[in-house]
Design goal:
The protein is built from seven helices and four strands. It is of the alpha+beta class. The chain has one domain: Alpha-Beta Plaits. Bound molecules: guanosine-5'-diphosphate and magnesium ion.
Length: about 140
Amino acid sequence: MAIERTFSMVKPDGVDRGLIGEVLRRYESNGLKISALRMTRLVPGRTQEFYGMHRGKPFFDELVAFVSSGPVVGMVVEGEDAIRRVRDIMGATNYKQAIPGTIRAEFAREITRNIVHGSDSPESAAREIEFFFGGT
Ligand SMILES: Nc1nc2c(ncn2[C@@H]2O[C@H](COP(=O)(O)OP(=O)(O)O)[C@@H](O)[C@H]2O)c(=O)[nH]1
Ligand SMILES: [Mg+2]
């Protein structure tokens, strides 16, 4: 299995609820490496660009308003099969369907406010890392 880099982000609900360290610990304790880390706030236009693949979906406006509502912590996570492993640690998009013990199963209470983001493919990982860390 190849060493991969993926992008993950603690969303504003995760920051607000004091779960930054919890998310980092879960990645690190699974043997993944955090190789970049940055807290920032995304203005709505930047959030729309980040979630561009979801434009036009019924939840898009709510998602953009939520992710723009406060600081986020973006990170690059590295390791073998990192893209899939980060998503396994996060749990399913709908927290009600997430496997017990995953971040979303334990902490999410609504579909939109589900604590973390993780890239879903090598292409989105590359795009999202550049979006968040390009030029820094
Ligand atoms: N309210 C609502 N929010 C959704 C729904 N699907 C996705 N979202 C939100 O939009 C984000 C991006 O969706 P998606 O890429 O499909 O899920 P992810 O890759 O697991 O984060 C999710 O993490 C949720 O915050 C939905 O059906 N309803
Ligand atoms: Mg996604």
